[in-house]
Write a structure and sequence with these properties.
Amino acid/polyamine transporter I; elongated; Rossmann fold; homodimer; mainly alpha; 612 residues
Chain lengths: 612, 612
């Protein structure tokens, strides 16, 4: 039943040998690996305005352009830094790998923890923003935004459990459509404003605020805009997915990605200031610009909204591809549960996908699908992992001293310093808005990973065979001591007895008496079996049958020879309908788990199947 | 930890031999067995008024007296009927026993089902009414009535799990105190009204309604008042608890009980009409009368309230004593889960007590501790069991024809007919108010009991040994076929192998390969053990290790000789901290339960304990 539903939802099992991976050319690698970075532009300018407008009103647009310029500078530095990472890591240079290889285990785990929280937030933020794009076009859907967002996450989960191949057309076309429509919007807007001189109509001009612009305000706006840079590291992670020459292609795509982010981000910010757009709760900034440029009912308006929603969903999908992969790396290193390294029936890392589904859905429900509440939590982790990755590269250069290492160390050092500063700015300005949650989560995750690793180490130490395995094999098998508990003489008991007789050991039948009459009946029935194994009877004045049996087992264990084991044979009857188990004492289950905690007790269940 | 809490809450275990039962004299038997019946009087007059006053206002008091007289007549008939039951059942004549012995299995189950629902309702109704008595005295406690009621139920549950002996003083004194204070109230009231001619003061006189009094209204008021008769059967259930001559004493107590109910019920109804008491949501009728007679701040007012609350809690306690006993009878007959017949550490039927706790608490929470909503559900079951018990007695007389059987059959026949008529009146007039719930619950319970009995019968048929048991014992033990699955060569596996070697059978090591490299490493390590058992390796292209193993077991099963069994030895490592199990695959658990469903597979768990 469960299997059938599963196979309908996610498809039939795939053989391990059918695993394959498509390689990207530059033309498809760009859209597929950069959806996260490009899509984040759609909410970055809105975030800046949300900080500025409530304080300084219509005076916001100039500082916004300055902040956008600063963010673009940051982008340029990151691009140069990551080009060097691509050069050094042809097998893919994720922050976890770069940091742990070059700095150490703990920085690696910090990167892993911050990346993990970020992937979860990427899914939540992107799907919420996607829903916002949809509800901006269709305001009547606004009351259902939590449901719509959860539906999007569910579709992504099922798709990834099914194991969506990174199909060029499915994943590349939406990004190009978005780039096309947003560029069309920017060009049309600029032409209308600058060339045709059309003053935007129907734009409400709120009252100008006269407060001073504080440094903290600017920093906070800058921090909010930094969400535009999330997803930049995806290309250096994905180097091996490029067609040869893979590193060269990856670097090309990185530069193209940066150029696109540059043009779109600056363009959107510029149009926002031209059209005096202010952030509203029911319509996004991009949708307001599109309304201003194309008009509310034009096809282009709907195209911009549709492609924005699509690319945001694609961005969430990259997290669905990357977090399970990261978790599988961590699982192989023993930092998270091993089950995250197991591939499901469809070869996807299904446990990681399910975990991401649960966590991101919870966030969406808790934050009522409002990405503005989620974004303060978002970028801290990204910049923390940037910092660690760049610091790792810096240490690599100054330790290995290969080639033009001084020059390269300066570039990565620069990257590390700017990322670190940004990270601090983000933490401080957004601390009270929610960044504190992340700053608690990351250390907690690291502790958890270390505890898990310690556990796996202990288990391995316990299990590993140091000396030649042959010495551990007992040359002379010891005699078996068998205890067969009995409650009444019935077919199930007789079956267990017949089985115990095949084991060739000393059998003892053991009964705990709670009722004189029943015990006498039992003795009589046992005599009729005409077998000559001793029947040991103990009285349980407190009716604690299991405890008596366990005490008896413990007493026998004390008298065992070295290497000898005690065998407890438990007759167990099996009932077809599982609710019927409510009608029977589950004492044998509790008994079993108690017995298994004893080092030298083997427990045998002999099933007796009840026909109905 | 859990054990410690348990022993603090309910005390240390008691030996089976320490079971004892106190016998009652008339003087203590009366209060102990009649708290249910006497206490119900405290809300019966209120229920009658609640039906009449909203329709006919101040004209209610005359019909109320007539209805009270009718209910008292019903009581007299029941007393005569139950005297005969006491004569015939010196070992206690509960409805379940009388109906099943004399009419048949299904009527017995109907009686059992209706009694069970009634016991649950008794607890809920009595504790709610007890809380109402408390909040009438202290109106500031009104908002906490659900909490107070649940607390009362919890105290009763813990007390009964502890195994309260039916201590004369603890249980008898509150009843006598109640009887004393309520009689004092009635006498004082009558003296003040009739002798001293004091007209009650401060009594609001609502507008007189002029509507006609319909027959249906009178019947509905009658039905509401019938709750006064609940608990009358308790004495015939408890005959063996009386000192010799037990039947004579029981009959005496029955008559005394009836007289008390008669006096108190008529007295309360009379005073209610004299003081023009109308039902209110925040103060009970008894409390209003007590206010009128003694004044709001007198000590007697508080005494009446306190003793009313106490006797109502005692009444709930009788259900805590009787339902677990009924369930244990049903369990012995196989109509409910056998665990209800097991005595807990303190010799009480702890499972029945826990069930009663859960059900009555749920009712209290659902109905927000308002007994007026619960009472319509209440009396139907009582009168159904009266009817069946009396019909049983009637059939007993006309079948056995012993002594003055004609005379006695007429009395029990009368009792049966009146009970049946009352039961029908109750069902019809209160159907929409909630009686329909009971009329669905009772058949559902009966079906459930029959299904359970059928299951137990099937299990017994499967297990019982018909022929001489000796024939079932295999004279020549067959050879053991042992399969030992392996994932990697480690100490846990070696331990399981050493153990398997003691079993003296043909051992096969079985490995499912999902990873070529890992399998080759395994083969090498296995060679180093230098044992010569065959290592069977199967490829799992779909990574479904468990399914492959089960298929292999099934293939081997098909080739077994008759009576031969297959043994699967599972190395199982045991981790001290239970949350660490999250870090390990639980596949072996699922494997075990799948293997146990196969008729001829014995599963052996060999524990390997991991030290931390």
């Amino acid at each position: 039943m469960f299997k059938k539903i599963k196979s309908i939802l996610i498809g039939k099992a795939i053989k391990s040998t059918e695993s394959e991976h498509q390689k990207f050319s530059v033309i498809w690698g760009l859209p597929i690996l950069s959806s996260d970075a490009i899509s984040s532009v759609s909410y970055a300018s809105e975030e800046i305005l949300m900080v500025l407008v409530p304080v300084i009103g219509m005076a916001s647009y100039k500082p916004m352009m300055a902040i956008a310029a600063a963010i673009v500078c940051l982008l340029v530095i990151l691009v140069f830094s990551y080009r060097q990472t691509i050069d050094c890591y042809p097998q893919g240079g994720g922050s976890y790998r770069v940091a742990s290889e070059n700095i150490g285990r703990i920085p690696g785990l910090v990167a892993a923890a911050s990346l993990s929280t970020d992937y979860v937030l990427t899914v939540a933020v992107s799907t919420c923003a996607g829903t916002a794009a949809i509800t901006s076009a269709f305001p009547e859907l606004l009351p259902y935004r939590v449901g719509i967002t959860l539906f999007l996450i569910l579709v992504l989960t099922l798709g990834n459990l099914r194991g969506i191949r990174e199909s060029s057309i499915l994943f590349g076309v939406p990004t190009y459509l978005f780039v096309f429509s947003i560029l069309a919007m920017i060009v049309t807007g600029i032409v209308r404003v600058l060339v045709l001189g059309q003053v935007p109509q129907n734009v409400p001009v709120p009252q100008q605020s006269i407060q001073d612009i504080s440094v903290f305000l600017i920093l906070r706006a800058f921090a909010s805009g930094c969400t535009a840079l999330t997803g930049v590291e995806a290309i250096s992670d994905g180097v091996p997915n490029f067609k040869a020459p893979s590193q060269k292609n990856a670097k090309r795509v990185l530069v193209m990605l940066a150029s696109l982010v540059f043009v779109i981000f600056i363009g959107v910010c510029y149009l926002a200031s031209m059209y005096h757009v202010t952030p509203k709760s029911d319509i996004t900034v991009v949708a307001q610009i599109a309304t201003g440029v194309f008009g509310r009912d034009s096809m282009m308006f709907y195209l911009v909204q549709a492609t924005t929603a699509l690319i945001l969903v694609m961005a969430a999908n990259t997290a669905f591809a990357d977090l399970p992969l990261l978790l599988s790396l961590l699982a192989k290193d023993g930092f998270v549960a091993r089950s995250f390294a197991t591939r499901g029936t469809r070869l996807s890392f299904s446990n990681g996908i399910m975990l991401l589904f649960i966590l991101s859905s919870t966030l969406v429900i808790v934050f009522k699908a409002d990405q503005h509440h989620l974004l303060p939590l978002y970028a801290v982790g990204v910049f923390l992992s940037f910092t660690l990755s760049q610091t790792g590269m810096f240490r690599r250069w100054i330790t290995r001293k290969e080639g033009k290492w001084r020059h390269k160390a300066v570039i990565n050092g620069c990257g590390a310093i700017v990322s670190a500063i940004t990270c601090i700015v983000l933490s401080v300005t957004k601390f009270l808005l929610g960044a504190w949650v992340v700053l608690i989560c990351i250390p907690a995750l690291i502790c958890l990973m270390l505890v898990i690793r310690r556990h796996y180490d202990k288990v391995r130490d316990n299990l590993v065979i140091e000396k030649s395995g042959n010495e551990l094999i007992h040359k002379v098998p010891t005699e078996n001591c068998i205890i067969l508990p009995i409650q009444s003489v019935n077919k199930s008991f007789v079956k267990a007895l017949n089985y115990a007789m095949t084991l060739g050991g000393k059998i003892e039948i053991y009964h705990v008496s709670t009722d004189q009459a029943a015990t006498e009946k039992l003795i009589n029935q046992y005599r009729q079996l005409k077998v000559d194994f001793p029947l040991v009877i103990e009285e349980a004045p407190y009716r604690n049958v299991n405890e008596m049996l366990i005490a008896h087992v413990d007493a026998r264990l004390a008298r065992l020879e070295p290497h000898q084991m005690l065998t407890v044979v438990l007759p167990q009857f099996i009932i077809p309908k599982s609710w019927h188990y409510l009608l029977h004492n589950q004492t044998s289950l509790r008994l079993k788990s108690a017995l298994l905690k004893r080092r030298d007790v083997a427990v045998i269940s002999v099933p007796y199947i009840i026909n109905e």
